[in-house]
Amino acid sequence: MGEKLPRVPGGARLHSDGLSRPVQTLRVKMVLLGSSGVGKSSLALRFDKDEFRSTTPTVGCAYLTRVVHLSDVTLRFEIWDTAGQEKYHSITPLYYRGAHAALVVYDVSQRETFVRAQVWLKELEKQYIPGSTVIWLVGNKVDRAQDRQVSVQEGQSLANDRGLLFTETSALLGDQVCELLLAVAHRVHECIGAQQGGLSEWQETAHVDLHRRDTFNPFVSCCKVGP
Amino acid sequence: MERDNHQEGEAQGVKICDPPCESNPPADTLATSLSLLGNHMFPDPVERNNSTTVNKQELSNPILSDVTEEEKSVDAEPQSNQVTKLEAEEAEISECQNNASSQTLDEGTEDAATDNDRSDSGEFVVAMLAKAKLEEQGIGVKGRSSPLLEAGIQESPAFMSHRDEDVTAESWRQHRKHVFVLSEAGKPIYSRYGSEEALSSTMGVMMALVSFVQSGDNIIRSVYSAEHTVVFLQKGPLVLVCVSNSRQTEQQLRGELLYVYYQIISMLTQASISRIFEHKKNYDLRRLLAGSEKILDGLLNLVDSDPSFLLAAVHCLPLASSLRDSLSQILLKAITPNLVFSILIANNQLLTIVQEKTVIEDARLEPADVHLLLNLIGASSAFQAGEIWTPICLPLFNPDCYFYAYISYLDPPECTVCLLLLSTDKEAFYAVAECKRKIEEAMTAQNSLSLIAKVQSYSVSQVGVSDLRHFMYKPFDVPDNYRQLTQFTSPEMEAPYSSEEEKMRLLDLYRYMHSRIHSTSRPLKLIYHVAERETLLAWVTSKFELYTCFSPLVTKACAITAITKLLRWIKKEEDRLFIRYPQKYSTTPNPSKSSRGGKSDQQDSTENGFLSLL
């Protein structure tokens, strides 16, 4: 876990990287879900550039890539940073369909985001066969310790109940963020990479990954999140 | 001045027009409703009737009758002494005499003339709004607390300050232009300053006014008071209200409200808004707009500071035509099925735009839609983070369906050159992202980015006319160049218009000139206006619309010569200043889907609509 991740400048434009390496590069689709303002984009920015900026609400969905090198394989994370705003919920399934990893993020200083995270988990569970997706519960903004409304125990027990993994992070300070990505990478590689056709190889001119799309039923309705 | 004559007639008035579906109501309906309004709203109705004017517009032909009505009011007024009107060959020149020239727009003598007539009655709405506000003191300015409205948790400080403004403070009242959006049930949806929650009873009063007038089979359009103009716009289930103390005309303010409405439509579509309110009249639309306040804030700031909105035309960056062509060629080569528009933007101005052939045969891309796209890009710094894929509706193209916009900056970390690709296929992200990769490669190969980086807007000094300080030139459609995107060109605002205040002052002068040119009652073709610190000349012909600003000592003859020179210069530079021949491509391999941009998606947007959220 302490391994220092190689910094990759301009993560989205790494096309020449990887191919020259002898190790295999696999594509991992990861989606960030959660309420508006919990810090999904800030986490994504940490993953991508390891910096923190105050962001404005995401419009639609932001797409970033980040390459993570494990000992025997290179994973190219395609990160879909979804907007938490309700008006975009109808299109969010577009982004989480076929994801190998889903980070469900809440803000530890806002209890309602924790409640909302559970709704997201339910939504995800409806769509996924257990084992095909690594779902990670992330409590963000631990730097706001004085305003904490959701305890570590609560987060951990929710994760245990549902068989998820759990981490608390601070995108502001960078606490546990890189560790989280690395842990996700290991987990995805262990669980899905081992399966037949679990992860596809990434090539310079990769096109739409039709393979995974076919394994799921097309969506009938978009969003049942609202009350 | 003509506008001032109007003011005398209407300044105190409530302007009401009948709803378009109704036949003319008996005259006493209006009178009754007004006197009822008086009984309810005015402390002293009798006195009010003297100073309150109602403008009723006949339904059968609202525009025509508007003209007649207004002309009558002009005729009824004695000609203003400060204005001399001259008839010219093809144009009417109205020139201010020397005494008028010593007055600024803000301090016209008409104020003095009408001041005596002005009782506080004209301000009744403003007073009512203020009263409602006082009652809200208990509510305070706490941000929204509903668990469903989680936005605003992580917003920038500047953003917070607007939302958290104390709505009972004098400073809140002093704002130049307030904009409110509410639902027909009177639920607050948006306020430019202060939180909607703290303003809920103010908005309640607004809705009361709207529905009261509506109950008399009329539509409230505007209310004039000494300092404020209140303009109402009803669009479907939404009511938009502007309270302005700028001297903009009602038409201009209504146009701005329409932009706000379109921006909301661009995020939600008209069809889903109607559906939502059909099912639940008191739905809180803020749930769906949460997080988008900044986009509306940004739009209103742009509307105030960018003449593109006034002129309803897009501003493109001056570019050597060879460079613009090569950029267009790059875009033309990077296409994929269902792609309909490819747009390159630098510093909020268009570099080039290419479009799908069949789409443009059906409908043209309207400047307003481009403005909304540019505002969306400008209002969200999140775009700088990576590649964005988002549904977006272009309200003038088709208000009921979504396009899917791919947005990415090509020059991180500077983030000045932005690529916008619009597709009708929501699944097309990877295909469209591949187009971006091709475009990026080609631009690197041709060194386009560094060429673009060198491009700047131009200085008015390049025209070589010494007295000319600034201008805005908007050519109209040329018959052989059909369905072109309406564009305008304008140099940088330089000294003495370098400070924000001075820029705004010049824009206000232009807005005034624009209102005179486009007056519904007495449109002008040419107007020469001597203001306090500059002289302006506006001229509209069948081929162009031109606004010029000269130093104050210019003579009329000088100005005319200067304009001739300017027009010659523009003609010479045309290829550089405008996107002359928009390139088209065809993505017909999948004709069923791409034949009508957007249409194909209508079904999807229904399936994917927001009903499921209810």
Automatic annotation (TrEMBL), chain A:
Q: Does the keyword Protein biosynthesis apply?
A: no
Task: Look up the coiled coil feature and give its residue ranges.
Answer: none
Indicate whether Nucleotide-binding appears among the record's keywords.
yes
According to the UniProt entry, its GO molecular function terms are: GTP binding; GTPase activity
Q: Which Pfam families match?
A: Ras (PF00071)
Question: Which superkingdom heads the taxonomic lineage of this protein's source?
Answer: Eukaryota
Q: Supply the InterPro entries for this chain.
A: P-loop_NTPase (IPR027417), Rab_GTPases_membrane_traffic (IPR050209), Small_GTP-bd (IPR005225), Small_GTPase (IPR001806)
Keyword annotations of the record: GTP-binding, Nucleotide-binding
State the similarity comment.
Answer: Belongs to the small GTPase superfamily. Rab family.
Q: What is this protein called?
A: Ras-related protein Rab-17
UniProt organism field: Zoarces viviparus
UniProtKB/TrEMBL annotation, chain B:
Q: Which GO terms describe its biological process?
A: protein targeting to vacuole; vesicle-mediated transport
Q: Cellular component per GO? A: Mon1-Ccz1 complex
Q: Where is the composition biased (Polar residues)?
A: 48-63, 95-106, 584-597, 603-614
Recorded superkingdom: Eukaryota
Looking at the record, the residues that make up the FUZ/MON1/HPS1 third Longin domain are 468-574
Which InterPro entries does the record cross-reference, listed alphabetically?
FUZ/MON1/HPS1_longin_1 (IPR043972), FUZ/MON1/HPS1_longin_2 (IPR043971), FUZ/MON1/HPS1_longin_3 (IPR043970), Mon1 (IPR004353)
| Stretches the record annotates as Disordered | 1-120, 584-614
The residue ranges of the FUZ/MON1/HPS1 second Longin domain are 338-439
Q: Which segments constitute the FUZ/MON1/HPS1 first Longin domain?
A: 177-299
Q: What does this protein do?
A: Plays an important role in membrane trafficking through the secretory apparatus.
To which protein family does this belong? Belongs to the MON1/SAND family.
User: What protein name applies here?
Assistant: Vacuolar fusion protein MON1 homolog
* Species, as recorded: Zoarces viviparus
